[in-house]
Amino acid sequence: MTALAPRVTPEQVAHYDRPGPRYTSYPTAVEFNDGFRPADYLARLALADARAGEPLSVYTHIPFCVERCLFCACHVIASPLGTRVTGPYLAHLFREIELVAAALPHRRNVVQYQWGGGTPTYLSVSEIHALLDDFERFFTFEPGAEIAIEVDPRVTTAEQLRALRDRGFNRISLGVQDLDAQVQEAIGRVQPVPVTTAAVREARRLGFRGINIDLIYGLPHQTLESFAATLDSVIALEPDRLAIYSFAFVPWLKGNQKKLEADILPDRDTKIGLILEARERLLAAGYRAIGMDHFAKPDDELSAALDTGRLRRNFMGYTVQDTPDMIGFGVSAIGLVQGAYVQNHKKLSGYYAAVEAGGPPVERGYAMSADDRLRADVIQALMCTFAVDRAAIERRHQVDFASYFAPELERVTALAAEGLADLGPDGIRVTPLGELFVRNLAMCFDRYLPATQQGARPRFSRTI
Ligand SMILES: C[S@@+](CC[C@H](N)C(=O)[O-])C[C@H]1O[C@@H](n2cnc3c(N)ncnc32)[C@H](O)[C@@H]1O
Ligand code: SF4
Q1: CA distance 85 to 7
Q2: Whose atoms come closest to the Cα of 177: which ligand?
Q3: Does residue 412 sit in helix, strand or coil?
Q4: What is the atom index within ligand 2 of the atom nearest the CA of 65?
Q5: What is the DSSP letter of 51?
């Protein structure tokens, strides 16, 4: 049973607010490097192919958006509709799919398929069909596969939703961020409430499941009152899930964020108040808290995954992951194949050139060591289940937990003394207070963090 919002003091908030990863991967993308070459990716694909018949996850990145929202930290190419950017992109994407499929002749069954962005519904209905036709020439969806898409309700039509549903898409996530007019104005994303309502209703009518709404807390002009109103309106739409992301304010990495007026951002105490407000309202409305920033109805499969230990965290946030191998297609896409993270070129020109040269368009990557896998497992456990089962970790990784992690457990002990966790012979259990600061607990196990924190500029957004 999820506890209601814990009490938290301004001193605690100040104490734990520091730059830190969101751990959608461990090691984080900061460790990816260009020593990992396209040939290394092909070698990993060959290993994956040797696991003949095992299912795959596939992610496809559609980078285009009509306009760039001022808060956005995603890999986006802003281009007004009608500028003919999609034709060349799809042509290169097709070639990438073809060449990766050639390296996977025995591994073509897909249980999880996701289009993310950018805005995948930037594609027209005929482009949606064309991309799926091409993908399905090589890969086959398993019965019951989870086929998901992220959409921006402002540019998504009923025809597109119908086409997606007809072609097997069954999960959908809608970007909303905040419903308050003043906030929307300040973030450069005006999205009238009826637009959101119509998209949710249409998705439900068409039979999409796991309907998710993304909100962000910590945006300009947000107050406890305004966010409470947004939450009430969103709850009235009865989404199956919500992601309530902490605003990642990283203007040194994302130039568009420089246009946000930093002095109208809520202060640290207000920001934590916003997530506490959200938590209280959502739990009272019958949602369950899932990991760090998701909420789901008790009958949603994210809730079931939490109960059965199948909840995972990856680049898409919290998911019910069925396979250890995830192929990423498209510019800047990230995959994880046989223990190696693989990222495609982030610039369109580099992506196009690499595809035209006939190799996989890999720009950088990272082959995990046994130590990375162990730490990734511990961090996953903290981020997904708020607990680390010592015996399970020892069994899976053949280590003595207490001696392997002696320095890390000293750091956890200090946080436990402050009330963030209970540390016992069975492992670690995060307290309701610690759930708010779980990134700080995960950071105890990150062996790369001290080095990445030494530069003049922080590499990560703040933990609050
Ligand atoms: C690719 S976008 C979603 C799809 C679509 N482009 C849209 O905006 O409606 C994925 C989500 O990332 C989240 N996001 C983007 N920039 C963020 C930031 N700086 N901090 C926190 N969340 C962010 C937003 O909630 C957004 O809905
Ligand atoms: S939030 Fe969505 S619509 Fe806005 S720029 Fe980012 S990806 Fe595009």
Answers
A1: 50
A2: 1
A3: helix
A4: 8
A5: S
Atom of ligand 1 nearest to the CA of 71: 19
* Gap between the Cα atoms of 422 and 410, Å rounded: 13
Angle, helix 193-205 to helix 158-166, in steps of 10 degrees: 30
Using alpha carbons only, what angle is made at residue 418 by residues 269 and 294, rounded to the nearest 5 degrees? 55
* CA-wise closest residue to 277 among 331, 239, 232, 326: 232
Q: Is the CB of 117 under 6 A from ligand 1?
A: yes
Q: Which two tokens stand for residue 140?
A: 């086959």
Report the alpha-carbon distance of residue 75 to residue 434 in Å, rounded. Answer: 31
Ligand 2 pocket, 154 CB below 6 A?
no
Pocket test for ligand 1, best of 161, 177, 184, 463 (most atoms within 8 A of CB): 177
Q: How close is the Cα of 163 to the center of ligand 2, in Å?
A: 22
DSSP string, 199-217: HHHHHHHTT-EEEEEEEEE
pLDDT tens-digit readout, 386-418: 999 999 999 999 999 999 999 999 999 999 999
pTM of the model: 0.93
Cβ of 175 below 6 Å from ligand 2: yes
CA-nearest of 145, 128, 66 to 93 is 128
Q: Cα angle at 216 between 62 and 460, to 5 degrees?
A: 75
Distance CA 228, CA 232 (A): 6
Q: Are 248 and 73 in contact (CB under 8 A)?
A: yes
Which-ligand-closest: CA of 254? 1
- 430 sits in which H/E element: strand 427-430
**Concatenated DSSP letters of 129-154:** HHHHHHHHHH-EEEEEEEEEEEE-GG
Q: Contact, 339 vs 9, CB < 8 A? A: no
Nearest-angstrom CA–CA distance, 397 and 399: 6
Q: Does ligand 2 come within 6 angstroms of the Cβ of 20?
A: no
Tens digits of per-residue pLDDT, 92-138?
999 999 999 999 999 999 999 999 999 999 999 999 999 999 999 99
Q: Which residue has the tokens 């109103």?
A: 229
195 phi and psi, to 5 degrees?
Answer: -65, -45
What's the pLDDT tens digit per position in 41-87? 999 999 999 999 899 999 999 999 999 999 999 989 999 887 889 99
Q: Distances from the Cα of 182 to the Cαs of 219, 226, 255, in angstroms?
A: 11, 10, 22
Instruction: Tell whether ligand 2 has an atom less than 6 A from the beta carbon of residue 132.
Output: no
Residues 6+ apart with CB under 8 A from 344: 61, 96, 328, 329, 330, 331, 332, 333, 334, 351, 354, 360, 361, 362, 363
Q: Is the CB of 152 under 6 A from ligand 2?
A: yes
